[in-house]
From TrEMBL, chain A:
InterPro entries: Sel_put. It holds the Pfam family Sel_put. It comes from Sphingomonas mucosissima. This is YbdD/YjiX family protein.
Automatic annotation (TrEMBL), chain B:
The keyword Transmembrane applies. It is found in: Cell membrane. It holds the Pfam family CstA. This is Carbon starvation protein A. InterPro entries: CstA (IPR051605), CstA_N (IPR003706). The lineage of its organism: Bacteria, Pseudomonadati, Pseudomonadota, Alphaproteobacteria, Sphingomonadales.
Length: 59, 683
């Protein structure tokens, strides 16, 4: 993985967005019968999960 | 042996630097000595102590599947590269705390704070973060409350939850108070902060409908908007029409913030919370990096003495009380912060790819936060001590204007002229810097000093000052919003124990009631702090410190219980020593805040002074009426009750810890409730 790609992934995970490609790979490997969420659906689902649960930030 | 040689050399560098810091008197010490000492201590501590704890004490097993491996779903449970996860974890633990506490602690000189930050992080803070991460990682990423319940029982679990909720309330109140102190009577600052609300909403709409997921893009747009708001803010502040509209008193701001907290925490997260968190997270990382580079390049001398007389008398103007125990609760985040136990048992354990990564993430990220605290301490110490004390002493001491402030601070032994105070205020584009308590403005003046020397010259000072204020206010407001939501869920959990209807987190009414209760609770303490003549920081920061360190003690006691139940009690000193120290500090501080005869320190003594005056029919300053006198007494008693509650939580958890440890000793085999390694291998 290039340095820039890794930095981008780090920045996205800092605000609660995991890697989309990893998710797609997981669905393909473990649940081939399911259709993975689109990139936009994935983003919305993760955003709601990260910020809507009330966790995550320190003083 | 040869592989240890570089580490021995590093340890010698650290020891020599500490020697310089501790022994040089009379001439200014360069900040880089502190940097060198800190970096050496961190590296040596990581190489030897962190790995000792990981390998010998808890027996990290890289072949054992982590929750991310066992339950991988591509969403919550994802095996993540350790460097990527380090960034995630660091961003989640580092907030305003490590920037504010050390600034307040600088009133005793830089030496006590430096030593406590170093010793605290190595022996307590980083140990706690790592241990809780480890414990949660072996239990499917369960939260702190659930962990206490699993290993110690239902009653201590509930007690820990009540404690965590009260901490949340105090944290929100104290963070909001810092924002109030930084933005009151500052039209430039207030305008830029208010401008972030519509800006975030535009960003939210952009990521919702136009380009979902384009976080990098929208953050760049937002950043340009922020810079524009800072630049434009100067014209707004100078405008005869708009200037006064954005000039609010602390009390007006207090009610504004309470209304903001209530509304913002009920809005959909994509509209305000998420987009503003993108800005505040990236700005925070950027500003911390810039500050580190600034200090390294500038190599400023420390103008604050190593020790001021307040380290010996305990009569400092910023906060009252002797060095022990109050220094150890004033600097919480950066040395040891109980709140991290909630983060280390949150998302991080679900993302960890291998048990072998745990020391790097748990222990390492906390060392990094400690470095942030160290930079804040350096920043406060490079200022002229006269400016530092004029900014941080409450108006009751300074009289609120440069002339009276200069006289009062000079009389304290830190000579400063009224012109210097007025000029400093003009340089940073503010009406006054006198009694701008709360730590944030002090840090902003120091950051403006450092940044403008490197970039832009004196003419840019005002820009950098407001940039620093904006960066602090931005992530505090995000924390207020996110914290109110978190507090709401905690409260629904607790109320759900009494009435199950409250558990329905999806239905509207219980959520609304819990939100209002939560906002009402922190709003109460915020209002009390804002109207406090001693600036509020004096009352609320110790309460915050006591509660935060108390949670750390609870977390370390849980870790002790787990070590006993793993049958590794011969290593339990690793958690017993810091837990005992924290129980001692919070216990002593709590009892002093309750019963100390000096009304500046003891809540009940303060209440007594005012209730005696009421009985005599006398109105004491700062109260103007009898009703206000009554309110002061009432507030003192609430604070005292809260203090007693915190003490009760510590005592109760201590009792259950001892009981569970003794029970574990009587059983011959391990009794921890870990997910067995075989279960993971079977899947």
């Amino acid at each position: 993985m290039s340095l820039f790609a890794r930095l981008a992934e780090t920045a996205r995970l800092m605000v609660g967005l995991p890697d989309y490609d990893t998710y797609c790979r997981h669905v393909a490997d473990h649940h081939p019968e399911r259709t993975p969420m689109t990139r936009a659906e994935f983003f919305r689902e993760r955003q709601q999960a990260h910020y809507g649960s009330g966790g995550g930030r320190c003083c | 042996m040869t592989r240890h040689l570089p580490w021995i050399a590093l340890a010698l560098v650290g020891a020599a630097s500490l020697g310089v810091i501790a022994t040089v008197r009379g001439e200014p010490v360069n900040a880089l000595w502190i940097v060198a000492a800190a970096v050496s201590v961190y590296l040596v501590a990581y190489r030897y102590y962190a790995l000792f704890i990981a390998r010998a004490v808890v027996g990290i097993d890289p072949s054992r599947p982590t929750p991310a491996v066992r339950r991988g779903d591509g969403l919550d449970y994802v095996p993540t590269d350790r460097r990527v996860l380090f960034g995630h974890h660091f961003a989640a633990i580092a907030g305003a705390g490590p920037l504010v506490g050390p600034v307040l602690a600088a009133q005793m000189g830089y030496l006590p704070g430096t030593l406590w930050i170093l010793a605290g992080v190595v022996l307590a803070g980083a140990v706690q973060d790592f241990m809780i991460l480890f414990i949660s990682m072996r239990r499917d990423g369960k939260s702190l409350g659930e962990l206490v319940r699993m290993e110690m029982g239902a009653i201590p679990g509930t007690i820990a939850l009540v404690g965590a909720f009260m901490i949340m309330v105090i944290i929100l109140a104290v963070l909001a108070l810092i924002v109030v102190r930084a933005l009151a009577e500052s039209p430039w600052g207030l305008f830029t902060v208010i401008a972030t609300v519509p800006l975030a909403m535009v960003m939210g709409a952009y990521t919702r409908w136009l380009r979902p997921g384009a976080i990098g893009e929208v953050s760049i747009i937002g950043f340009i908007g922020l810079i524009a708001a800072i630049i434009f803010g100067q014209s707004v502040a100078e405008s005869a029409y708009w200037g006064p509209i954005f000039t609010l008193t602390p009390v007006q701001l207090c009610f504004g913030l309470i209304a903001y907290g209530a509304i913002a925490s009920l809005l959909p997260v994509w509209l305000l919370l998420a987009p503003r968190d993108y800005l505040s997270t990236f700005l925070k990382i950027g500003a911390i990096a810039a500050l580190a580079i600034g200090i390294a390049v500038l190599a400023p001398p420390l103008r604050m003495p190593a020790l001021t007389e307040f380290a010996f008398t305990g009569a400092g103007p910023v906060w009252a009380g002797p060095l022990f125990p109050f220094l150890f609760i004033t600097i919480a985040c950066g040395a040891v912060s109980g709140f991290h136990a909630l983060i280390s048992s949150g998302t991080t354990p679900k993302l960890i790819a291998s048990e072998g990564d745990a020391p790097f993430i748990g222990y390492g990220a906390m060392l990094m936060e400690s470095a942030v605290a160290m930079m804040a301490l350096i920043a406060a110490s490079i200022l002229d001590p006269g400016i530092y004390f004029a900014m941080n002493a409450p108006a009751a001491i300074t009289g609120g204007d440069p002339v009276t402030a200069a006289a009062a601070i000079t009389a304290m032994g830190f000579p400063i002229s009224a012109e210097t105070l007025a000029n400093t205020a003009r340089d940073v584009g503010e009406a006054t810097i006198v009694s701008r308590t709360g730590g944030a403005p002090t840090l902003a003046v120091a950051m403006a000093e450092i940044f403008s020397t490197i970039l832009g010259g004196p003419g840019m000072k005002a820009f950098w000052y407001h940039f620093a204020i904006l960066f602090e206010a931005l992530f505090i407001l995000t924390a207020v919003d996110a914290g109110t939501r978190a507090g709401r869920f905690m409260l629904q959990d607790l109320l759900g124990l009494a009435s199950p209807r409250f558990k329905e987190t999806k239905s509207f009414l219980p959520g609304l009631i819990a939100t209002m209760l939560c906002v009402g609770a922190w709003g109460f303490f915020l209002y009390q702090g804002v109207t406090d003549p001693l600036g509020g920081v004096n009352t609320l920061w110790p309460l915050f410190g006591i509660s935060n360190q108390m949670l750390a003690a609870v977390a370390l006691m849980l870790a002790t219980v787990v070590l006993f139940r793993m049958k590794r009690e011969r290593f339990a000193w690793v958690t017993i020593v810091p837990a005992a120290w924290l129980v001692l500090c919070t216990g002593t501080a709590g009892l002093m805040k309750l019963f100390h005869p000096d009304p500046k320190i003891g809540f009940l003594a303060h209440a007594q002074v005012f209730s005696d005056a009421i009985a005599r029919g006398e109105v004491l300053k700062p109260a103007a009426t009898m009703a206000e006198m009554g309110r002061i007494v009432f507030n003192d008693r609430i604070d005292a009750a809260l203090c007693a509650l915190f003490l009760g939580v510590v005592a109760a958890i201590l009792f259950y810890t001892v009981r569970t440890c003794l029970a574990a000793r009587r059983i011959a085999q391990p009794s921890v409730q870990e997910i067995p390694p075989m279960l993971g291998a079977a899947r």
